[in-house]
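Friendly challenge for the regulars: who can give me the structure tokens for this chain first? No prize, just bragging rights.
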Amino acid sequence: MNREAAVRPILTCRDLSVGYGEAVLCSGISLTIREGEYVSLVGPRGSGKSALIATMLGALEPMAGEVIFENGLRREQIGCMPQDSEIRGTATVRDTVLAGCLGQMRHLFVGRAERRMAMEQLERLGVADLEKRRIGELSGGQRQRVFLARALCGKKRLLLLDEPLKGLDVAARDELFSEIARIREEDGCAVVMVDSEAIDGTVLHISDTVRFCGPVEEYARSLPGQLTFSGHIL
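First reply, four minutes later:
Bragging rights claimed.
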């Protein structure tokens, strides 16, 4: 990926307000995501982080402001991994990951290309041997790898991850975090990740409004003695 491509904006939030129903959770969000960038999305519980992810994806309408796709970004080029608590059921691992291919399909039925893509992503994340297992039978770490594989089937240029490390033990967190860092390095995709410890790149801290938006170094200086990274730095 050349230097010019790395700085091209692909998604801009302009004076955005997000929330559910008539309840505004956060307002005044202005952020530009560039090709290959890592964005840390932080803030207290209920501040609108998941709503912002859903609004970027197009699953929620902005309550004010707008989300602008730039330089040819299309919605089907975005992979999304919602919170683990939002993904339940008895589907098999293979069918779960195949669902991530739906946005890429130009025909009505899952074909050989989609099955190959799903297996490639399962193999990439080391869980191909679980393809016939059901989601409810997996450990937390295994389940998150499967959901990440599903997101990767839809991802081309942007990956939205909503607390992918939540609820995992330290070893599983470290392993999955390393996988995410490797994927970003290998694929050159932009990553927006909700997590209070995996902080790097550009930091967007929201509550009822934007508390900070800028480089991680400035964010650390703005919170002397309060910010710890617990070793999770991309």
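The helical segments are 3-6, 49-57, 93-98, 112-124, 140-154, 170-187, 216-222. The two ends are 18 Å apart (CA to CA). Your move, everyone else.
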